[in-house]
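Sample intake sheet
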Amino acid sequence: MDTIGYQFHHKTEIQMRMSDLDAIGHVNNGVQYIYFDIGRVEYLRNINENTVNWKDPELVIVHTECDFKHSILFTDHIFVETKTIEIGKKSVKMLQQIIDQNGIIKSTCYSVLSGFDIALNCSKEITPEVKEKIFLFEGLK
């Protein structure tokens, strides 16, 4: 998914480790999913006043897809930018990108998160409180 034209309000700095690299010195594509997870958790933590209830999560990932555009090298200083692009009755759609210190987009990620009822182990509607927090953070209200 193309991220051009979107304005991101959340940015998370990523600390690379030597173990993130593959045999030719690039950050492994699978590791980049972890970077997107870090950015997503920080985004959710930020809209929830630095708390995430891991025992009763409001949202869970149900779909994710990535496009790998440019190699990430250990010498790159990288960030994950995260944005909610749509909120439905039971889902939240997010767009993320990994960028380097020069603003070069290294990879992009599109995710769908679902409201989740941990007691019933099934999807549920997104609560008005969660919607309001996202709307306020994204400047939509």
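Comment: The first strand starts at residue 10 and ends at 14. The longest helix spans residues 29-47.
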